[in-house]
Structure formats: structure tokens, C-alpha cells
Design brief:
The chain is globular. Among the domains are: about 110 residues, Immunoglobulins (Immunoglobulin-like, Sandwich); about 60 residues, no CATH class; about 150 residues, TIM Barrel, CATH 3.20.20; about 90 residues, Immunoglobulin-like (Sandwich). The protein is an alpha+beta fold and about 700 residues long. It has an eight-stranded parallel sheet. Strands 25, 26, 27, 29, 30, 31 and 33 form a seven-stranded antiparallel sheet that branches. A hairpin with a 2-residue loop joins strand 8 and strand 9. It is about 25% helix and about 25% strand. The protein starts with a helix and ends with a strand.
Length: about 700
């Protein structure tokens, strides 16, 4: 019997249709509480690991844990999805795993990148038994305050012009709040203080923030206060000065031992205790409003004014203070610092400075158990009553100590001390590069998320380097580079760290994000401050905020970003908050995006997944079993039509509709509810130039 060509074609079509087809879009697992139960498993406990497939689509699912394969069993069917699970018995060691799905002879593996033909150990899932981070911090909205530039609530404590010398010149009290910072602005003071924070607490609460992160508050001679003078006390210039005696430096005086007004202000225990009392009041008021408080811990180095060194001879003749190590070779603090010349006393300036800066003496922990214990006591002191702060941000944390081994040892002890004193305190480190060796569950909780948030998003939306030092057209709108960076760097986090990572657009060390939207390369020294304000694109800024408030982690607003503040990198990024001439529309956009973030649980603790990519276009989903949202960013300077397949990926049904809950473009933003009909699991949508939209899935 012979077959004609039509018969052969029909037979081939029949055989093709009978072949098993694996729905790779439906495959899913991640670190969220839908797929890891409990979310943060304990040592020697059990954890239920889940994996999702399309309904009746696979024959077998396996989980490969530390190289051993285990069959998963079908736990449930919900809608058009099957959920497989495996109960894993944990020890007190790292567990790594990935998945493999089979249908017929077809096999597909699954790691942190999603469905792949071959897994890569760099993207294995990880469980670190016993590692947990505070629940309050997961998806919390932080607000960073650089105190001197926020609000002056108490002019009586202002640093005065000529009060003391620092880095070659005298302190300056700035009379005009709106003046741009000088290029060498370290000794300029605008008068912002803790009373100012108290005065603006209604505003902070109205934004909807969950936590305040303060730049350093301890006694220090600079406005940035990363050169700590006394770790035991809040600086009276930020706090309260109740005993104000002494003189300013005379015109020709350059030695701070004659700065008696300054010496009395910062060494007099009445002023120091009153300042600590005011800080207690700030924390109590914040807590009353449901707002946490985080302090900046500068423990790698201190300042040349520090009472243990006393290079400025401020404490040399002050009552109640020991001689500093700079002053006297018999000082009880001599081994707190490393000196290179043992024959230079008195007034030995040969100490080790961080990166060679003699104003930032590096602390010699390896040489002094007393120093080691004292700093740990400070870590504990401020998280305990009566101060009750809710955690630490750690400055240049990877630099502490003189070796990597010692560094890890210190941070392990630091965590033990802090968590024993306050188990809900968060530990966030400043870090660039791979943080994974510190995120093993026994040191830091998380990091300021430069590599898996600020940098990739900045490159994608602006093409700018985060200091505004470079513009790269090849990075602007480069969706491949964005997703590659995000996936690679996010893989360095396990679940406890990822959902509390500090996701910033700007901070005190980098140019303001709004300024990056003008694509101007340079700094205030070369371009002048006005250039930072010119040609900015507020629509791009709103796109960035939309991503910030819908991305996994803890979105962190740098004071004034929400009010339209611009600025090149340090010190121009430290401009004052523009009270009285804020960008009210930008403030309201932040307020509404924070509301959207907090009202939709998928944005705080849900899963996320890329849905679509194109030049200058981002599209991703945030979802849990009950709630699904889609975020689309069109960063092109023209409108864009898109056909987005999303239903299988985020767990939505083909016959659902989606509703806009936030929209922004060049004309502004709105929260009007527009609905879009889904056609066979696809969304057809056209977005205007520089547009962002948040769509919520509504089941019908």
C-alpha cells in the first residue's frame, strides 16, 4: 500500500502533536515563602521545598541537593498548575540545590536563572540553616537622613564660624540654607539637627516610610561625621548644648587646644548627656509612629579629633579624660593605633591612617583587646535600652582589620553581640562587589545593594556611571546587560539577605539620580553646581522610583530625592532639603508609590520574574499564589507597542484582566484604574515615551 504526499504529511503532523511538550514558562521556584517553608529554616530542622509546573505536563520532578537526586511528589493542583514538593532534613551546613523536570525523554534543569539546558553552580539555590533577618525589614521603606542638611530645628547648637580648625581652615556656619555646598565643604555647617528631625516627623510619617537610616550622629568635627571623635555620645551640635562657655579661635589662632568654645561643647558631660537624652526622645517618637531607627557605625577608622588619639589636643587638659595616644606614649590607648615611629612622642603623628588620610586613623584591633571589646560594647549599647535603635549600617565594613580572616572574626562577634542584645536589629554593610562570604548567616544581614540594584538600573535608565563620571550609550537601554547583571549579582544573596537589601537610587557617596538623567559627565569642580540641575528628566526619575518600589528588597530614599534635589557627587549630593520650594508632584509620586508598595504584598515578599525585554524596555512580574502584578518600563523617547506573554510565568489565568494601579509618563502620573483584557495569556499594550505602568491582575 502506498501513501500519497498528503497522507505522509498528516501522519507526520499526528506524530508531532503526540510528542510531549514541556511548558518551560510554567516551571518555577524561588526563595519566597510560597516555595520555601519555613522561609528561614532553623539548624537541624526540616524545610519544605516546592516546585511549580503546568498541570499534568511533566512525568517527574527531581531536586538535586548537594549532588544527590531526590524525587519530588505532587503536593497539589491549583488552577492550571501542579505543585511538587520535597521535605529536606537540614543539618548545620550549607545546602545547595537545583531542579530537573522530565516529560518523556525531554529533560529540563532549573536554577536561579530559570529553565536551562545545563545548570551552573554559580546559580544554585542555597539554604543556610539558622540564618534569619528581621521580618520588619523585609520590603521595608527606608529614608536616609544626612542630618546637617535636613532641617535646623535648634539654631542654638549650630557650629559657629571660627569655632575650630579642620583640614586647613576654620569651621563655617552657613547663613543661607539654600546655598550650594562648597567643593571643600567638609567644614561647612548648615545647622540641621535632631530637633529638626523631630520637627519634621509628621512629614516623614506622611510619606509612609518604615525606617530612618541616619548618617553618623556621634561627636565628630565634620558635617559628614565619618571621623568619629567619641562613640559614647551624640554630637551636641546635633543634640543639645546646655552649657555654652568658652571662646572662638582668634583670627591668627590655628591650634584647636585654644578652641575653648568647641572643647566645652563636645567634652562637657552636661552637653553630651543632654544630647543622648534628645536622641532617646527621637527614637521613642519614631517608634511611637511605627518607624524604626538605624545608626551608621564607623568602626574601621575614627577621626584625628578622637579622644583616644587626641591629635588636636582637645582632651589633653579636659577634666575626666585620659591622655590620648598622640599626646603621650603612656596613654592607655596607645595600642588602639599603629605607630610607625616609636621615638616620636610626645605628639606622635606617625600613626596609620585609612588610605593614608591622617584625619582618619585606622583602628588597630589586632593590637588591642581593649579596643576590640570597647567597640563591641558600643555595638551593644545603642541597640539596648534606653537608646533602642533597630540596627546598624556599617561603613566600609570589608576594610576593618588588617586581614580578611580577622575581618570575618570581628563581624561574627559583632553579630553575636548585637543579636543577643536585640534579636530584631538589622545589620547592613556598605560593600561593593561580591558580599557572599559575609552573608553566610553569622556576620552581616545584607548590604547596600549597589551591584544588584543601583548600578544596573542606573546604567539602563541613564547610561551614566553612579558618580556621573562616565556616560556609555551602549549601556543606556541595554536590557541584556541589565538582566545579566541583576541575575548574576542577585545570585550572591540567599533569601534572608535579598528581601532586606538596601535598594537605593542615590546616597551621600554618589551623584543624585535625577542629575544622572541629564547625561552630563563631570563633577561640581569642573561643571559647577547649576549644571547638575540642567536638562534633567523627571519622567526617567519616576521610572526609577517605580522600579525601586516594586523590586525585591528594602527601597531606600535619600533625603530630598523625593523633593527633586539634584547634585553631582560628594559634596554636591549633600545639598539641603529644599523646604518651602519642594517639587510637590515628585513628593506625591513617592508617597503614592510607597502606598502601592505597601498595599500589595507581592512587592514586599513575593517572587519576581522577567517577562519581556527589548531595547529601553523592562518588564517583570511580582507575584505570590494569590496576587500578581506586572511592571513595564518604556524608557524610549518614543511610544512603544508590546506583546507580552505573562500568564504562565506569573501564575495568572488566560482569561484574567489587568488593571493599572500606577501610571507615569512625561506629562506626570496618575492612579486612575484602567483595565486591559488578556487575549490567550497575552497583553497587548502601547506605552508612551518615558513611561512606566504597574498592572494588577484581576481574576474573572
Amino acid at each position: 500500500m502506498s501513501l500519497n504526499i498528503e497522507d505522509i504529511f498528516e501522519k507526520e503532523k499526528y506524530l508531532f502533536n503526540m510528542r510531549p511538550i514541556l511548558n518551560r514558562d510554567a516551571l518555577f521556584s524561588d526563595y519566597s515563602s510560597d516555595y520555601l517553608v519555613p522561609w528561614e529554616p532553623t539548624k537541624y530542622g526540616q524545610v519544605k521545598i516546592r516546585f511549580r509546573t503546568a498541570k499534568n505536563n511533566v512525568d517527574h520532578v527531581y531536586i538535586i541537593v548537594n549532588g544527590d537526586s531526590h524525587a519530588m511528589y505532587k503536593e497539589s493542583t491549583v488552577g492550571r498548575f501542579d505543585y511538587y514538593e520535597y521535605i529536606l532534613q537540614l543539618e548545620n551546613e550549607l545546602m545547595v540545590y537545583f531542579f530537573e523536570a522530565e516529560v518523556g525523554k525531554i529533560k529540563c534543569q532549573y536554577d536561579l536563572r530559570g529553565a536551562v539546558d545545563n545548570v551552573d553552580m554559580n546559580f544554585f539555590f542555597e539554604i543556610r540553616p539558622g540564618f534569619s533577618t528581621p521580618d520588619w525589614a523585609k520590603g521595608a521603606v527606608f529614608y536616609q537622613i544626612y542630618v546637617d542638611r535636613f532641617y535646623n530645628g535648634d539654631p542654638s547648637n549650630d557650629v559657629l564660624t571660627g569655632e575650630y580648625m579642620y583640614i586647613g581652615d576654620k569651621s563655617v556656619r552657613v547663613e543661607n540654607w539654600d546655598k550650594y555646598p562648597e567643593q571643600m565643604g567638609v567644614r561647612e555647617f548648615y545647622g540641621g539637627d535632631l530637633q529638626g528631625v523631630l520637627d519634621k516627623m509628621d512629614y516623614l510619617q506622611s510619606l509612609g516610610i518604615d525606617a530612618i537610616y541616619f548618617n553618623p550622629l556621634f561627636v565628630s568635627p565634620s558635617n559628614h561625621k565619618y571621623d568619629i571623635q567619641d562613640y559614647d555620645y551624640i554630637d551636641p551640635h546635633f543634640g543639645r548644648i546646655v552649657d555654652d562657655r568658652g571662646s572662638l579661635l582668634e583670627e591668627n589662632q590655628t591650634e584647636n587646644r585654644f578652641a575653648t568654645r568647641y572643647i566645652n561643647r563636645v567634652t562637657n558631660k552636661k552637653n553630651l548627656e543632654a544630647s543622648n537624652e534628645l536622641f532617646i526622645k527621637v527614637v521613642e517618637e519614631a517608634h511611637r509612629r511605627g518607624i524604626k531607627v538605624i545608626l551608621d557605625g564607623v568602626f574601621n577608622h575614627c577621626g584625628s579629633f578622637n579622644k583616644w588619639l587626641d591629635r588636636e589636643r582637645i582632651y589633653e587638659n579636659s577634666e575626666g579624660y585620659e591622655k590620648g595616644a598622640y599626646v603621650d606614649e603612656n596613654s592607655p590607648y596607645r595600642d588602639f593605633f599603629k605607630f610607625f615611629d616609636e621615638n616620636a612622642w610626645p605628639y606622635n603623628g606617625s600613626y596609620d591612617g585609612w588610605w593614608g588620610h591622617d584625619t582618619l586613623p585606622k583602628m588597630n584591633y589586632e593590637g588591642s583587646q581593649k579596643l576590640y571589646d570597647y567597640i563591641l560594647s558600643m555595638a551593644e549599647k545603642w541597640v539596648r535600652p534606653p537608646y533602642n535603635i533597630d540596627g546598624w549600617r556599617l561603613d566600609v565594613a570589608a576594610d576593618l582589620g588588617h586581614s580578611g580572616e580577622f575581618n570575618h572574626h570581628f563581624w561574627q562577634d559583632f553579630r553575636r553581640v548585637v543579636k543577643n542584645a536585640n534579636k530584631d536589629a538589622i545589620i547592613i554593610a556598605e560593600h561593593y562587589g561580591d558580599p557572599s562570604s559575609w552573608l553566610q548567616g553569622n556576620e552581616w544581614d545584607t548590604v547596600m545593594n549597589y551591584d544588584a540594584f543601583m548600578e544596573p538600573l542606573t546604567w539602563f535608565l541613564t547610561g551614566m556611571q553612579k558618580h556621573s563620571d562616565d556616560f556609555r550609550p551602549d549601556m543606556l537601554g541595554n536590557a541584556d546587560a541589565f538582566w545579566d547583571a541583576m541575575v548574576w549579582n542577585t545570585a550572591k544573596f540567599s533569601a534572608p539577605s535579598m528581601y532586606v537589601s538596601m535598594n537605593e537610587l542615590s546616597n551621600h557617596d554618589h551623584s543624585r539620580f535625577l542629575t544622572r538623567t541629564n547625561h552630563k559627565v563631570g563633577r561640581v569642580a569642573s561643571l559647577g553646581p547649576e549644571a547638575a540641575n540642567e536638562g534633567v528628566n523627571k519622567a526617567v526619575m519616576r521610572e526609577a522610583v517605580m522600579v525601586q518600589m516594586t523590586w525585591p528588597g528594602a527601597p531606600t530614599i535619600y533625603y530630598g530625592d523625593e523633593a527633586g534635589v539634584c547634585g553631582f557627587t560628594d559634596p554636591d549630593n549633600r545639598r539641603t532639603y529644599p523646604w518651602g520650594h519642594e517639587d510637590q508632584d515628585m513628593i506625591e509620586f513617592h508617597r503614592q508609590m510607597i502606598r502601592v508598595h505597601k498595599e500589595n504584598p507581592e512587592f514586599k515578599t513575593g517572587s519576581y520574574r522577567e517577562l519581556y525585554r527589548d531595547y529601553n524596555v523592562l518588564c517583570y512580574g511580582r507575584f505570590n499564589r494569590d496576587e500578581q502584578s506586572i511592571i513595564i518600563i518604556n524608557n524610549n523617547d518614543h511610544s512603544k507597542e508590546m506583546n507580552i506573554k505573562f500568564g504562565w510565568k506569573v501564575g495568572a489565568m488566560d482569561d484574567c484582566v489587568v488593571e493599572s494601579i500606577m501610571y507615569t509618563d512625561e506629562a506626570g502620573f496618575n492612579t486612575d484604574r484602567y483595565t486591559y483584557i488578556i487575549d490567550k495569556g497575552r497583553l497587548f499594550i502601547k506605552l508612551r515615551a518615558f513611561c512606566g505602568i504597574v498592572l494588577k491582575v484581576i481574576r474573572v
